[in-house]
Each structure stands twice: as C-alpha cells, then as structure tokens.
C-alpha cells in the first residue's frame, strides 16, 4: 500500500487539517476532497453514512491527494475490518475508555502476528504498490482511539502505553458531557483546557499525535498552537449550512441597504 501521508507529516512535526463527511454522497465527498484537506474522514458513528455510501465517498476521493479515513460506529472488529478492507488509511474509534478496549481496537486493526484482522482487502488491496498490501498495512494504517470520557482520562496512561496507537482524537462534546458540562466543541472552561494540556503532554512523551474536533477555523489554529497536530473543522453538512446562512444573510442585508 502507498505511504501514509499523515504519518509522514506528523513525523516531520507538521500540523494537519482533516475534513469530515456526514453526508452520504460521493459527489459531496468529491467536492470536499478538493478543499485542501490533508485527510478526509467518513463518519459512520454520527453521520448519515452507511458502509456503501462510505465506499462511494472513497471512490470519489480516490483521484485527489487526501488520505481517506473512517470513524467507526463502535469498537467492534467486524466493522473495523470492513472499513480497512474498503481502503481506509486510518480508523478513529469512539469511546475507548480502558487499556483492554485500546488493545482490542489495535488487535482489530492489525494483521497477525500483531493482531487478528482477517485477510481480505477487497478494495484496499487493488491500490497497493509493488509490495503487497498485507506486507505494509500494519505499518501504514493509523490507529486513533478517541479520548472523550472521565473514565478514559482516569486510564489515560494505560491507554497511551498500548503499542500501536498512532494518535488520539478528542471529542470535546462528549468529554464535556462526561464531566457534567453542556456538549459543545470549542471549549473555554479552565477544567477542559487543563485536560487538553495533559493530553498533549502525555502523547508528546510517547511520540503520539493529539487530534481534536473543532467548530471553527480560529479554534483549530488555536488548538495547533496548544500542541495538537490533527484538527477537524465541523463537517460537510455544518460547513454547507454556514455557507448557506452567510449567503442568504448577505443577500438580505444587501436588500435592506437598497431599500
């Protein structure tokens, strides 16, 4: 399989920006893939995507220089294997709260002897280089557990010490929710900012990248300044709604100025 460009950029100390697909349409993915993202993630957890729409999104993005990734709905080996077989170069896994759950996630992502992933890269294998897909998949695929609960924070060191984790991904809404706060993305609470500092410090010690979902470009820039190396800005449906509201608002404002 071809080299994982996100891994390469992280090794070079470079920040990366990630797109997010909730809309189950190849055309939407094709448009998003031309936005300049380093990677684009299909969301099978909270988006309206299913497995076949994910494959269509991958096909639409194939000719563009973005790394295809997936957030799976849960830490379950069947769906993890299927998204990898379809061509995902990275898997973001929600609600990884213990060392055992982190180990189970890595095991599902890796071929033997490191893991128990079944052989059958039905789509991924046909895009490999001269070296076979199976020979390089364990090294190239990104394994990214989400840290989004108090339980995960309580077990953070044990989770991060699991071999094979390439990055973590913070879900700010669920993290706040778990701590008794309202769910939202761009958080300012001192309690949450202190958690971010801890996550960045602990991942940095281990050579693991820290990622976070952001609600605005300005917060993504701020997150990179904090030490995060992987940021997402909203998703395709959220960006579409923002652009639509801005266009309609500008139109109505223009009419008012003329009247």
Protein model, in words:
This protein has 259 residues and is of the alpha/beta class. It has a single domain (5-258), classed as Phosphoenolpyruvate-binding domains (TIM Barrel, Alpha-Beta Barrel). It is 47% helix and 15% strand. The protein is built from twelve helices and eight strands. The protein has an eight-stranded parallel β-barrel with strand order 1-2-3-4-5-6-7-8, surrounded by eight helices. α11 links the parallel β7 (209-214) and β8 (230-233). It starts with a helix and ends with a helix. The model has no long low-confidence stretch (mean pLDDT 96).
Provide keyphrases for this structure.
259 residues; 15% strand; single chain; 8-stranded parallel beta barrel; alpha/beta; TIM Barrel
User: What's the story with the biggest beta sheet?
Assistant: 8 strands, parallel, barrel
Poorly predicted segments: none
> What order do the strands of the largest sheet run in, or round the barrel if closed?
1-2-3-4-5-6-7-8
Indicate the mean pLDDT: 96
**Radius of gyration of CA atoms, rounded to a whole number:** 19 Å
Whole-Å distance between the termini? 61 Å
Strand content: 15-25%
CATH superfamily: Phosphoenolpyruvate-binding domains
The first-level CATH class is given as Alpha Beta
Q: What class do helices, strands and sheet pairing give?
A: alpha/beta
- Categorize the overall geometry: globular
What CATH architecture would you give?
Answer: Alpha-Beta Barrel
**What's the structural domain tally?**
1
- In N-to-C order, the SSE pattern is HEHEHEHEHHEHHEHHEHEH
């Amino acid at each position: 399989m071809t080299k994982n460009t996100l891994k390469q950029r992280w090794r070079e100390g470079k920040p990366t920006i990630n797109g997010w697909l909730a809309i189950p349409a190849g055309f939407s993915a094709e448009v998003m893939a031309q936005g300049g993202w380093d990677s684009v993630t299909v969301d099978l957890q909270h988006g309206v995507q299913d497995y076949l729409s994910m494959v269509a999104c991958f096909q639409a993005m194939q000719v563009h220089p973005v790394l295809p990734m997936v957030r799976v709905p849960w830490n379950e080996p069947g769906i993890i294997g299927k998204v990898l077989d379809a061509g995902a170069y990275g898997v973001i896994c929600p609600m990884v709260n213990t060392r055992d759950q982190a180990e189970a996630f890595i095991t599902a992502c890796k071929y033997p002897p490191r893991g128990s992933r079944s052989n059958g890269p039905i789509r991924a294998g046909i895009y490999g280089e001269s070296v076979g897909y199976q020979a390089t998949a364990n090294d190239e695929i990104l394994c990214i557990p989400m840290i989004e609960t108090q339980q995960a924070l309580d077990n953070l060191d044990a989770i991060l010490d699991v071999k094979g984790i390439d990055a973590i991904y913070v879900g700010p809404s669920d993290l706040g929710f778990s701590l008794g706060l309202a769910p939202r993305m761009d958080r300012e609470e001192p309690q949450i900012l202190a958690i971010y500092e801890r996550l960045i410090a602990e991942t940095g010690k281990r050579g693991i990248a820290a990622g976070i979902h952001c609600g605005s470009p300005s917060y993504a820039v701020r997150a990179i300044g904090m030490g995060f190396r992987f940021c997402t800005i909203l998703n395709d449906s959220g960006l579409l709604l923002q652009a639509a509201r801005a266009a309609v608002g500008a139109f109505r404002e223009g009419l008012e100025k003329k009247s």
